[in-house]
Amino acid sequence: MSLFSRLWNALTGGAASTDSASSSTQTLLADEEELPQRRPAGDDAWWKNPPPPPPAPTASAALIDQTLYDALTRTLDDPEIELPRMPAVADKALIQLRENTVDFRALADVVQQDAALTAQLLRVANSVTYRGFSEIRSLDLAFARLGQRTVRSVILGTTIRALAIRTGGATRSIGEELWRASLAAAAVCGELAVRIGENEDDAFLSGLLHDIGNLGVLRVCYDHAQQRGARIEPPLFAGLAERWHEHLGMRLAGSWGLPDPLPELIGNHHRAPRPGDPLTTRRNMLRMTDVLVAMMGYTPTTLSPAAALDGAADALQTAAAIALGLSSNEETCDWLSGLPDRVRSRVEVF
Fold it and tell me: Which pTM value belongs to this model?
């Protein structure tokens, strides 16, 4: 099984620990390379046909949205704004995981204070993907089996999921959309890394985390709705997210102590690379990820397909695709043809 598939199983909790449930997911995630999916790459190819943008709001809704937009903008512009916090246990664990050498027993003492996170990590360690000859029941042994990078991926993925969907009420569906978009971006960016020969683990986390600023926008919208009784419609959230998610994302990355260069990438992932930028490839990977994820319909609230394409006729004609050396050859078209099904199989694990 590839590194990417192992990371994906870690993020999703692996398959269920029972043989029957996990073998099904194992087949979906481990064998996709053995099941080539050839489809026509003509003008009807999905990467040449973005879905239509959402309908414009009515005049009255636009007026109400503008009033709320102005009020929420003032809140988002406040340097003292309260942003989503990394849960205390996860924060302490991630601090320890930044060290080159980690004391797994000391890390276990921290993680076991969070019952849900403990259960998730033990479930992953005992899943088909990682399971050894015996069942693991202690966290320190689970950490040794999984390794630092996988433990970090599980903690970050579990945290983002909780922050995205725990808002409840009318904004719950937006939070669920954000979580699905994060999963799709992690899947696409990981696959893209394999395609162009970059590090899968770094790409996986970049895709998963690059839009975390949307969580800050969602929190502000939810708090405002709770305090004022105002409904936050998707078009309003989309406008706020497009303007503020990079800025708030960089602040969140800093406050969460995410390792370099993630804060810089999160804070400027829509910006075209400048000459001599050492992060040029990773920036182009995120820009290409946004194009493909948007065209597959996973990000209706943050970036429209038209904006992602930036005037190009299809995904392979964008500046990011050209910079990454993705041309319209048969191999690339075959890879793109099967990509939506592979992403869908991973996202639907949830």
Answer: 0.78
